């Protein structure tokens, strides 16, 4: 077992919640670089407040993974005038790195929103707004036209240079028969045909996916392996593909519809809270809800999309008064559980996922959940 570097650790975290899935406005990733030490122990928290940083120091944590970004609003100076800057300065002095996954963890498969919608019961789920992504190995598609007797050599050269990867498969390609034409010019040196005479040659259209990183080497290898003086080829950028298992919020078609009161009790049990606020949609007091939606934290930005997708009940941490009123008037019931109540319970599962990923990679990494991180509001 080896202790990972900060870079190795953040790569592991990114594999569980790719930062590419974060909302554009979010401030995710490494926020404090630390002192470069290996990461032997990390502490998970919702908010990196001073008490949590003290806890991190007391247990010897090398990295704090704070769900909410410590540095969300840009700081003009690190002078200790705000609590965020004081925490950042203290983390730097202690050599503790800080990382935030926030909406990347919300939107990822098996992330916060998938955990939250489990509170509703059993059913078929998908994201409210699907994320569109493309695997790094498939960012581009190389399309090259090759005479039949040379296609294996060109394919092998492309594969050896890093093209042709789809998931755990390599040397992936497609070839279709066709015919090419060319007219060699006065200064050309054609392998097939002769200058000034139009040639018609049976060829194959060979296609292989390729990452942006491997693209220069792949094109150089293709040119070297291709028999033609001037190979005909295209480089096509691949469009991201919608994935309903990733993206903002979650919506579920329940196998067994339930009343809002029943769903509220389920949510309380799942989140471990004593109370929840309920606003019944107009005319929906005793209705059975078959299509329900969730958004961890503050869900106002997804309310319209959830309603448009057919949700009749919407669970989130908080909404403004006017957002709640608008939902009620549209016949949609709202459950409000408290902002961090819809997030904090996921940390235990997140810790288990990180431990499992570290074990698969033979990494020595202890993962703890902060005891000093708690809901800041209480009923009186």
Explain this structure.
- The protein has about 375 residues and is α/β, with parallel strands linked by helices.
- The relative contact order is 0.16.
- The mean pLDDT is about 95.
- Strand 13 (about 315-320), helix 10 and strand 14 form a beta-alpha-beta unit.
- Helix 6 runs antiparallel to helix 7.
- A 6-stranded mixed β-sheet has the order 5-10-12-13-14-11. A 5-stranded mixed β-sheet has the order 1-4-3-2-15, sandwiched between helices.
- It contains 12 helices and 15 strands.
- The chain folds into 3 domains: about 5-105 and about 345-370, NIF3 (NGG1p interacting factor 3)-like (Udp-n-acetylmuramoylalanyl-d-glutamate--2,6- Diaminopimelate Ligase, Chain: A, domain 1, 3-Layer(aba) Sandwich); about 110-130 and about 245-340, Udp-n-acetylmuramoylalanyl-d-glutamate--2,6- Diaminopimelate Ligase, Chain: A, domain 1, CATH 3.40.1390; about 135-235, Alpha-Beta Plaits (2-Layer Sandwich).
Q: Summarize this, please?
A:
By secondary structure, the chain is an alpha/beta fold. The chain has helices at residues 6-16, 50-59, 83-94, 102-107, 112-117, 151-160, 215-225, 260-271, 303-308, 321-329, 341-344, 346-360, and strands at 29-32, 41-45, 63-66, 97-100, 123-133, 140-147, 174-182, 199-210, 233-237, 241-259, 277-279, 288-298, 313-318, 333-336, 366-369.
